[in-house]
Amino acid sequence: MPALDAWLDGISMVLILVGALLCLSAAIGVVRFRDVASRLHAATKPQVLGLVLVCLAVALSQRSWPVVAFLVPVIMMQLATAPLSAHMVGRQAYRNGAIPEADLVVDELRDSAIVDDSPPN
Fold this sequence. Notes:
Number of domains: 1
Number of helices: 3
Helix content: over 70%
Number of strands: 0
Strand content: under 5%
Structural class: mainly alpha
């Protein structure tokens, strides 16, 4: 079993390194990118994958079912909230005019009631 433990520890170290690099690239992308759409992609895609890889590495290194039972809801909450928050920020950026219409390939929100420019009563 020591050989298997060494392999699992090595795999968990690689997963933590890759996950940390993905989270770092997400943070750098949020700071460096200029437009909202690019920042949203940088904030959600690599960050979620980085967290999943780090959680998988923790589960592999601990080799315990209670740890896995703790990490599964963490991953599920991240997978549920990251796209939702990105959608909300993107929609608000569209409403505020922060996303240029020339950058849109398809504009599904143009005719919807969400783009109501009338002042509230």
